[in-house]
Amino acid sequence: MSTSIEKSMLYSSFNARALNPVEVASTFIPPPEFLKLTNGAHTLVVGPRGSGKTTLLKMLQQAAIESWEHELAHPLRTSINFTGVFIPTDVTFTSQLEAAVDGLDGGDAIVRAAYTLHTLRAVMAAIEYRCGRVRLPVRHLVRRVEVSDESERELVASISHSLQRSPRTLSFSSFRAELASWLTDIFEFAQKQKLLSTKEQQDSLASSGFLRLDIVRTAKVAIDAFEVASGLYGEKWAFLCDELELAPKII
User: What's the burial of 159, exposed, middle or buried (CB within 10 Å: 0-12/13-18/19+)?
Assistant: First the structure.
């Protein structure tokens, strides 16, 4: 990591996990460390629980930047040159996932596939917002794109094809629901694996295409599809990984 932020950041003692970006922005007063996060460099944010790490990351989402009212807000709205993808990590999700694969051959592959879909949901949320499909009370629209219904269908179809899955309808909202369903399928797959012999487990893993998912490659497919749909190429996207220390060890 090229930058390390290791301050108490006591300006924010509440837990921002339950707040949406607009709610976070409504009370946000930036500490000096926040500017370090806007330069697009790889950065590690370190601090005790409740010190404001989640707040800093959530403020890098487009909805937060669009709704923030502060003397620094306008210059930052025009200078931030990346799309922030907030990726939460939940200790319950991690413990359930690790319990589901405990003792299984190929458990790491199942964990990676689940976390890949979890990450893809976050990427799709950022894409959906940039395309104007999410309605939040923001006042300063920046970096929005116009995407036709046909382009939306083509975008969703392209990503679905890479996952070897078929959503019921080719829309952002349907695809978001399907991702949640497919994530549940992975948990069910892990439970069924425990009923099989070792040889049967190996055969089942080998025939399950979605278990070969890769986080970075899958995210790139989604972003490439967005570029085709929007006509905007070569943009930067930032993964805002919250509480990454709580993610499964393989991640």
Answer: buried
Token output for 98: 């690790």
C-alpha to C-alpha distance for 69 and 142, rounded to whole angstroms: 14
Share of the chain above pLDDT 70, in %: 94
Between the CA of residue 106 and those of 100, 204, 248, what are the distances in Å? 12, 10, 14
CB distance 28 to 70 below 8 Å:
yes
CA distances from 98 to 63, 103, 193, 220, 221 (A): 33, 10, 14, 26, 27
Q: What is the pLDDT of residues 126-174, one digit of tens each?
A: 999 999 999 889 999 999 999 999 999 999 999 999 888 888 899 998 9
Residues in CB range of 123: below 8 A, 6 or more apart: 85, 219, 222, 223, 237
Give the CB-side neighbour count of residue 241, counting CA atoms within 13 A. Answer: 17
Token pair belonging to 248: 């499964």
pTM comes to 0.89
Among 20, 41, 30, which Cα is nearest to 74's?
30
Cβ neighbors of 39 (< 8 A, separation 6 or more) are none
Degrees to nearest 5, angle at CA 171 with 150 and 185 = 145
> Do 56 and 45 form a contact (C-beta atoms < 8 A)?
yes
Tell me 233's DSSP state.
-
Residue 69's nearest CA partner among 55, 79, 59, 84 is 59
Tell how far CA 26 is from the center of its chain: 22
What tokens appear for 90 in the block?
A: 């939940």
Phi, psi of 40, deg, nearest 5? 80, 5
| Contact by Cβ (8 Å): 37, 60 | yes
- Specify the DSSP class assigned to residue 19: S
